[in-house]
Amino acid sequence: MEKKTYIVSMIGIANAERNLLRNIFKLSPYRSYAYSVAVAGEAWGFLLVDAGCPHAMAEWRQSKASDPATAPGRSYRPTIPTVLVTRDLPPDSRLYYIRRPFVATRVINILDQVVQKDLQNVKKRSIGEEAGHKVAADASKTHAEAAKDNKNDNEIIALVVDDSSPVRKQIELELNYFGIKVDTAATGEQAVDFINHKSYDLIFLDVVLPGIDGYQLCKSLKRGKTKQKTPVIMLTSKSSPFDRVKGALAGCDSYLTKPVKQETFQKVVKKYLR
Question: Are residues 86 and 154 in the same domain?
Fold first, then answer.
């Protein structure tokens, strides 16, 4: 299926920031959704408005006033979803916003939220469906089993295993940048539970873990017939040749030494996406 590109129009955004956004949008083809800056006469999907520019805000409010969706008694959000660009939080929490200075992952994640919540058709529940029975059944499942039920065949999903919460979050944000969904585990045992109930396209595995260490977990994965082809990228602060040999003997597909440069990390991810 051809990926849809969402067109972003702007009010009051300076040329320097427009150019920066264009460069950020160039990375979106690697993600679930693609974005581009609107050109004159082009229909657009949503709007970026400089909240710090009075003229831009006045123009936006005027366009809202003529929108039937903002008539009295209607939802405050206009038909065309709007994202405010600001250094401070907007007073209305119902609004989307992007904080300055721009961070690529933050910009893309906000635009993804707009697409998912406002621009995609949501599957409606059939009238008379016995939802209560299904919810009760799901409640008895483990987290990994429930996640398996929601897996889409077109999704790319990674498992990040690291005992450091900040590291897990950093890797998750980097992978979200490519449109990859992420499950995280803090121990080898938690990772085993996920892997036993779900198929992953990539696994990022720290060497030093509580309980089962990364080498043991990687060996176990590569011995299994169903999981042995899943790329395993080992992450460690150990950089000696001996450690790399241990990683190779465990069967890992790539070995990265922390801290990993963003360019190096992205290069490895692109390799396995192909």
Answer: no
